[in-house]
Amino acid sequence: MTKLSRSPAALLLAAILPLCCTAPASALNSDVGALHASWRGCLHRNFDLQALVTSRTLAVESAVKSCRASEAAYLAALSTSPLVDDEDVSRVRPALIQRAKGWLLQKASGTRPL
Amino acid sequence: MRIAISKFHDAVHALKRGIGGLGLLSGLAVASLAAMPNLASAQTLASLPSVASTISTTGAARPISAWVTFCETYASECAVNVSEPATISLTPGVWNTIVSVNRRVNKSIRAVTDMDQLGMADRWDLAESGAGDCEDFQLLKRKLLAEAGLPRRAMRMTVVIDEKGEGHAVLTLITDRGDLILDNKTNSVLPWRQTGYTFIKRESQNAMAWVSLGRAASPVTTANR
Questions:
Q1: Phi/psi of residue B221, each to 5°?
Q2: Is B224 in CB contact (< 8 Å) with chain A?
Q3: Is the pLDDT of residue B91 over 90?
Q4: Region A49-73 average pLDDT
Q5: In this complex, do B161 and A92 lie within 8 Å of one another by their Cβ atoms?
Q6: Which residue, of A102, A113, B125, B175, has the fewest CB within 10 Å?
Q7: Does the keyword Signal apply (chain A) (predicted)?
Q8: What is the rounded CA–CA span in Å between residue B55 and residue A92?
Q9: CATH code of the domain occupying B5-42+53-217
Q10: Contacts of B54 (CB under 8 A, 6+ apart)
Q11: 10-49 of B, contacting A, C-beta below 8 A
Q12: Number of A:B CB contacts under 8 A?
């Protein structure tokens, strides 16, 4: 193969490689589940700490704020999972946050005043 | 537990015979109980909430690519006939048929991910192999219920976020007693509010399309079911 004939192949490869490697991979549900568990763990840890020094409602808000990074990782994976896309995730994010707050408040209900 | 294909087909045919023999639209509830005595015990129609609750739709949603492929292959499964009733009238006979189909399909199909079975992230079919994941269970239930006479238009594939935070497919039955959910995770046919799921989108009742369900979290937090 001459240098001249390799050139178009190299150009083609150069064109294809970025496409293959930057295309969003489809997240498996197991990955999504693990990231969700991680976010939930973060929320619970932060909530438990904050609830020692403040009210439960403030502790919930603080936990949600502190766990933005793991929330973002979970939502990013969710948006590339088979059944859900980025538009769905944007639309439903408030409901997911609300559900997470419900878990935290339920967990501690009856132990401290709101 | 692996179910032999022939065993699965026998089960489905037996189910079809049972359902077909009911004469669903004639409301033969007694026949249903006689044909499937082991299925009628757990849930009763009277156990549903007296106030019907429906999920509100908020606008168009992007279809799932695997659903588009499914609809190319199984066009009749996706077709929407707007002359069909948009709501299922729940008689005791219809209720018994729904409960039994839900339970039998859940029992007959082996749950396996598309990645494990087919090496791909998502593929929708009717679990012809005797195995499938969540949407395959629900598509088969809908096919059997439609064959039993229920209006396909009132049975809509639906995407939710489940207790593990993952996308999950269920079948929504739009009935005169509210929106009911068929799910491969439970044999109970639950009003949508009792599932604990966050509802994302479902098939349209008016076209081959999807509609968003907006901010529709069911209030029950069955987080660890």
A1: -105, 80
A2: no
A3: yes
A4: 96
A5: yes
A6: A113
A7: yes
A8: 14
A9: 3.10.620
A10: B174, B178, B179
A11: none
A12: 82
Helices (H), B148-183: none
Domain count, chain A: 1
- Chain B (139-198) residues lying within 8 Å, Cβ to Cβ, of chain A: 159, 161, 164-169, 198
Q: What are phi and psi of B29, to 5 degrees?
A: -65, -35
Domain coordinates in residue numbering, chain B = 5-42+53-217
Give the DSSP H or E segment for B203: strand B198-203
Specify if A83 maps to a domain: yes
Question: Would the CB atoms of B122 and A37 count as touching at under 8 Å?
Answer: no
Distance from CA of B61 to the nearest CA of A (A): 8
Give the domain range for residue A46.
Answer: 27-108
Asked whether the beta carbons of residue A26 and residue B121 sit closer than 8 angstroms, the reply is: yes
Question: How many angstroms away from the CA of B136 is the closest CA of chain A?
Answer: 13
Given pLDDT bands bounded at 50, 70 and 90, which one contains residue A27?
low
ipTM, 2 dp: 0.76
Tokens of B4: 């032999």
